């Protein structure tokens, strides 16, 4: 499993605002989108490119472009929706699949409730979007479902991860690529990330 932790000054700065319980929902959403842009840039770093010749206003030159614009984004509902606009801004031709999962409050086991994936997953890079990687149960289930639907080139994109979640994914999906904004200290006894940012879905959508 490859893990890329951004550990970037801008990400830390924005995370300091995102983590703050006093940050209102509208600003929280905007900040998630801003960090989402950085995550989108970093998680697409290894996409294949090819040479093309273009005429600039001054001369003919050889330059690079993406070999394929045929990508798939899969936000895990609900909180993954917070990262989707940033990814679509940079990758407007991407297909979007949806996967609905919620964590059972007592067992912390993810419960699937909705699934709609685009076809031909085996031929397309797939980016799973979920800001929070806590126990890793939801991400592991999302990757399991996508693999069973044919996906082979999978990247999980998260804003915050707990060490416990990274270990779980390493055990369940050693072939997975992970891009994460920062790795926090630990989980509490209710499966929340410490210090974390609270419940991402509730803060994004005002349901707390
Ligand atoms: C949150 C989060 C992840 C999951 C992470 O979703 O968005 O999907 O918890 O926890 P895990 O790593 O322990 O599985 P939640 O179940 O709260 O649903 P929501 O996004 O609809 O609020
Ligand atoms: N889901 C969240 O939204 N936050 C956490 O800290 C853990 C799971």
Précis, in short:
GO terms for molecular function: glycosyltransferase activity. This protein has 208 residues and is α/β, with parallel strands linked by helices.
Query: How would you state the average pLDDT, rounded?
Result: 97
**Helix count, per DSSP?**
6
Number of strands: 13
CATH architecture: 3-Layer(aba) Sandwich
Give the strand content. Answer: 25-35%
Query: Helical proportion?
Result: 25-40%
Cα Rg: 18 Å
Domain Phosphoribosyltransferase: 5-207
EC number: 2.4.2.9
InterPro entries: PRTase-like, PRTase_dom, Upp_B, UPRT, UPRTase/APRTase
GO molecular function, one term: glycosyltransferase activity
How is this structure best described in words?
A hairpin with a 6-residue loop joins strand 6 and strand 7. The longest helix has 19 residues. The chain is globular and about 60 Å long. The chain is about 30% helix and about 30% strand. It has about 210 residues and is of the alpha/beta class. Strands 1, 4, 5, 6, 7, 8, 9, 10 and 11 form a nine-stranded mixed β-sheet that branches. Strands 2-3 form a two-stranded antiparallel sheet. The model has no long low-confidence stretch (mean pLDDT about 95). It has one domain: Rossmann fold, CATH 3.40.50.2020. Helix 1 runs antiparallel to helix 2 and helix 2 packs across helix 3. It comes from Geothrix oryzae.
């Amino acid at each position: 499993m490859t893990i890329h932790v951004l550990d970037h000054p801008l990400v830390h700065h924005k995370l300091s605002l995102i983590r703050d319980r006093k940050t209102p929902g509208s600003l929280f959403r905007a900040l998630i989108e801003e960090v989402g842009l950085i995550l989108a840039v970093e998680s697409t770093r290894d996409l294949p490119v090819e040479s093309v010749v273009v005429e600039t206003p001054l001369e003919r030159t050889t330059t690079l472009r993406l070999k394929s614009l045929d990508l798939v984004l899969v936000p895990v509902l609900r909180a993954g929706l917070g990262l989707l606009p940033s990814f679509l801004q940079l990758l407007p031709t991407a297909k979007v699949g949806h996967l609905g999962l919620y964590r059972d409050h007592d067992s912390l086991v993810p419960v699937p409730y909705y699934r709609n994936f685009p076809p031909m997953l085996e031929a397309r890079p797939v980016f799973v979007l979920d800001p929070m990687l806590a126990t890793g149960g939801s991400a592991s289930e999302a990757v399991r479902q996508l693999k069973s639907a044919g996906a082979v080139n999978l990247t999980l994109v998260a804003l915050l991860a707990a060490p416990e979640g990274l270990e779980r994914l390493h055990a369940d999906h050693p072939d997975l690529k992970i891009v994460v904004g920062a790795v926090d200290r630990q989980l509490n006894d209710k499966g929340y990330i410490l210090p974390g940012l609270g419940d991402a879905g509730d803060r994004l959508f005002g349901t707390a």
